[in-house]
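Quick one: structure for this chain?
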Amino acid sequence: MVSARLSIARSGILCPLRQANTVGFMDWSFQSAEELAAALHAGEVTSVELTDEAIARIERDDKAINAICVPDFDNARAAARAADQARARGEDRPLLGIPVTVKESYDIAGLPTTWGMPQYKDYVPAEDAVQVSRLKAAGAVLLGKTNVPLTLRDIQSFNEIYGTTNNPWDHSRTSGGSSGGSAAALASGFGALSIGSDLAGSLRTPAHFCGIYAHKPTLGLVASRGMVAPPAPALPVDLDLAVVGPMARTARDLTLLLDVMAGPDPLTYGVAYDVALPPARHERLADFRVLIIEEHPLIPTGSAVRAGVNRVAEALVDEGARVERHSPLLPDPIEAATLYMQLMLSNAAAGLPLDVYRQLRTQAAALSADDRSLDAARLRGMVLSHRDWVEANNRRELHRHGWRQLFAEFDAVVCPITPTPAFPHDHDGGLEDRHIDIDSVEYPYFDQLVWAGMATMPGLPATAIPAGRSPEGLPVGVQLIGPMFEDRTPLRLAELLEQKIGGFQAPK
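Got it. Here's what it folds into:
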């Protein structure tokens, strides 16, 4: 056990629960996947032991958190035994024997995929999602599936089938959505890795609320087949805006898991293309050129989140990085937010019943031409004509061109993920009727998504990292936005910042 303890100490991110709690026994639950892989390789622990410990922790602690909505412990133990046997034969795959979880919205053959919709509580797909297949091929042990909001459309993880997932730091607050179950599981020590998805911050917001790491890949980098609402078939479609991606307790683990996930669908582009991501632009913090953005013209930034952004900025300055607070190269954030809302809601409304669509079209026609609010943008987006969508998409391309010009001068942008830390559970009424409290002032609930849209609308990669605590002790995160298909740049910056300011800490 000595070498295991030494490897943990060298990581520089020892958390309070990563220590021996009795003589001769190691609590592995909060160690990184990288550390677990090293221990497995050295013969210091078996996959069966790791899996049994993870299951015991879930059975003990998840009653209060409710992160694991579909446990699959018998199959997990069988997979762990198979992993140990494979290692004994000399095999060594990237995730061989490491316990992980999977967001409920991914198809796993033989387990329900509901997206929280009661009418599909008994829907069981016959085939694994492509990312589930990649996890299994990499040797991962799947503990089960994690909770989500209804149809994945909330910043909280609650549905009538599986109930509410609580924030491990404060059970009265949300863990985020829609990958809130995965974030809560990681913060609670339920597996070393998880996979989620992101359209409106669904990887980044739960990471921010729970104090973990997540990465929204460049649009199109990671195949998403089988991450589809029931009962739709699992087809290899190219999603607009939405991506799937990794979640972890360390930045290096994000890279480890992204390398497993990245690549085109073998049914389409994978026939002809392989992925070869370029290396990170820099290897030292001192060499990075970073634009810091802490305020958005459409919504204020809460004091706790602003403090997190500035903590990262100060760390960069302290290491000699070039840090700027303003740049004329930044694409117009108001137009960007409007485009994001229109494109996102156009997608979301595509399956609405015809009578509902007609009602929305009437409401949109009644809007004043001068109404440029985000509420108006969302309503107009739900009834966009094809002609208007093409125009919006062309304006998106102009924004992408603007980002390319910005990233010729900067390597990354640091900004908030949402304006506040995790907020109290609120499942009353419709989403459009709710509000978010920012330093005691209420704003429309969905307006907080403008920060998620900053990377989502143009399809940029963005890495969510812990950046401190609020005065109430809640986690605060920020996102590091990087150039398209240069995902290793924000991931490397995340790793260097983890070494500088610290990273994940287990909830007390």
